[in-house]
Amino acid sequence: MKTFDARGSGKAFPFILYGVLTLAMLVVLIPLIYVVCISFATKQEILTRGFFLIPREWTINAYGYLFTNRNFLNAFNNALYITVVGTVINIVLTGLMAYGLSKSWLKGRKTINLLVLFTMLFGGGMIPTYLVVKELHLLNSYWSLFLTGAIAPFNLIVMRSFFQNIPIELEESARMDGCGEFRLLWKIILPLSLPVVATFVLFYAVNNWNTYFNAILYLNDTAKWPLQVFLRQMLIETDMGMESNSDGFEYSQAVKMAAVVITALPLSIVYPFLQKHFNQGMMLGSVKG
Fold this sequence. Notes:
Residues 245-249 and 285-289 have low confidence and may be disordered. The chain has helices spanning 6-38, 43-49, 61-67, 70-101, 109-121, 126-135, 143-148, 153-165, 168-176, 181-192, 194-209, 213-218, 227-240, 253-284. With 289 residues, the chain is mainly α. The protein has one domain: MetI-like fold. It has 14 helices and no strands. Helix 3 (61-67) packs across helix 14. Keywords: Cell membrane, Membrane, Transmembrane, Transmembrane helix, Transport. Belongs to the binding-protein-dependent transport system permease family. The chain crosses the membrane at residues 12-41, 79-100, 112-131, 143-163, 184-206, 254-274. It is found in: Cell membrane. InterPro entries: MetI-like (IPR000515), MetI-like_sf (IPR035906).
């Protein structure tokens, strides 16, 4: 009768694990390589060769076309503005509210926490939110994007839990030295909170950079559209065969891929600088509820 050899299965497990991870890496890496390489390919090669990873002839015509396209540059600048300003508003409001709710002496704290939790389970809906934005005269304004998503309930709860984990002795010592609440928050709490702050800066920045549906819903002026809405419009114009420059260079497959690369590039550059804080901040606020 054969018996199960645990030692043999234990030796095989790393090879199986590496095989699965390699397969997962290829699933992610091949489409990425395809997008980048097609953005440097010529239109003729894309039409004649079909699927390929390495172009025979490399060209930057697609990137040159985008960076001379006034609409693309305007949409890119709009996306940068929305991301920077929106993320600052998100972090400031989320941090202030989380800090206040972390204090046990705050009157009505439990009720406010329940209301925050309620918004995670139930939303007002698209039409009521649109009517509120309209009544506040925020349509066609970037404030319609900033204020409707100013505070994410989940981020607020995690940040509040992190503030609750900070030793109360630090705050008591600072208050004995005459430190007020805002100075306490700025000089002591925030320096200790860099991991969790960096984590949610990244979360909010990604969300603001990828703003799409709310921009279509609230912004009627095409000059205010962010980059994601421009990409959608570019796809529509490609399908209709509308957009081309004086040289007949259309929104070809190479141009679309170049736009995808440029869109993904800013966050890809920022992420390595926040990664060391991001990995630590993902766990810090989840210990104490």
